[in-house]
Amino acid sequence: MSSERSLQTATTLRVGGVPRFWESVTSPSQLVTLIQQTDADGTACRILGGGSNVLAREGALDCAVVEIRNQNIAVEEDGDMVLVTVGAGVLWDDLVGFTVENGWWGLENLSAIPGTVGAAPVQNVGAYGVELSEVCVSAHVYDRAHMKFLTFQASDMQFAYRSSLFKRDPLRYVIWDVAVRLSKKPSRQLAYKDLEAYFGTGSIPSIAEVRGGIMAIRRGKFPDISIIGTAGSFFKNPIISREMYEGVQKQFPQLPHYAIENDTAVKIPIAYILEQLGYKGHRDNSVGMHDAHALVLVTYDGATSIAVDAFAKKIEKSVESSTGIVLEREVQFFP
Ligand code: NAP
Fold first, then answer.
1. What's the pLDDT score for residue 1?
2. pLDDT digits (tens, 9 = 90+) for 87-141
3. For ligand 1, what atom is nearest to the CA of residue 128?
4. Furthest-apart CA pair in the chain: how many Å?
5. Closest atom, ligand 1, to C-alpha of 222
6. 158 Cα to the center of ligand 1, angstroms
7. Which entry of 52, 133, 138, 233 is annotated as an active-site residue?
8. Residue 55: which region, alpha, beta or left (left: phi > 0; alpha: psi -120 to 50)?
9. In a mutational test of the pocket of ligand 1, which residue from 128, 164, 201 has the highest number of ligand atoms less than 8 Å from its CB?
10. What does pTM read for this prediction?
11. What gap in Å lies between CA 33 and CA 30, rounded to an integer?
12. Mind listing the pLDDT tens digit for each residue in 201-212?
């Protein structure tokens, strides 16, 4: 048990204070014992994954921060399919690299996303036309309300765009491992504009080339978290009614849009509007928007959670007053 480490060094936005204590757990029984202890003495117990989607508050934080260190990977091959069960503590991109090296298709478009495997179902991570929900089979999860481990099938997880049951009820569940089903047969998903531009129409890249291409595209648009504070996309790309889109389009005639399900709603790249509103590269002292991507908030020396929140509120207000769109944050306060 330790108490010196600050969330500033454990989160990619590089802000935050010092929790009452830190703990790492490597076995399910250790997790259960720790949760029972903290529940008994009234200490709030918060699980931290890769720290890449959280905005930690400053000061002495009245909570325990727990990191799940389950690093196990189990593989079961079944004909052309492969079931990979992965511990929550494995880095997401290490998992993607491992599956790509083995030639198992399904996760390659999700290359270079920061964070851990345990955090991936919470957010239903997605990129370039692929979402975790498409390959996720099940997860072992500790349910703090019923104090027992459960196996959730993917259909139980209420997956939606950047959301799931675990996101809707964040304090209740602790993800211990996640199983994904991948294919030995190629299944390329290259329809996104950035991918078409990179690979060229009609090309048939190998799985390693798809991963390499996505890493190169992301390097060009997203900042390097080892150099600058950021949590990637700070807001979700909004899904709005067609009617609302038609209104916003009058103001931004070139605004791209993508039809959702039955065509009554559309998803819009909010970075486009943020750029038109002048936020690309805009900076208020220690907080700003990245100069290569208007949806990516970045922090500089001296940033605090208060400054990040104030900057985000300024953007939310500006988008709502100019378009009526109420932005939803991907990044959540912690604890
Ligand atoms: P982008 O490729 O410029 O796309 C911006 C928006 O347009 C996204 O909402 C994207 O949908 C949508 N879009 C673009 N082409 C589309 C198509 N052909 N069909 C349907 N929708 C389309 O996004 P970016 O900011 O550079 O990010 C690259 C990818 O990484 C995106 O897929 C983005 O969503 C993803 N990403 C995910 C996370 C996360 O999981 N937390 C964080 C950062 C970025 P989608 O969002 O559905 O892809």
1. 56
2. 999 999 999 999 999 999 999 999 999 999 999 999 999 999 999 999 999 999 9
3. 32
4. 61
5. 26
6. 20
7. 233
8. beta
9. 128
10. 0.95
11. 5
12. 889 999 999 999
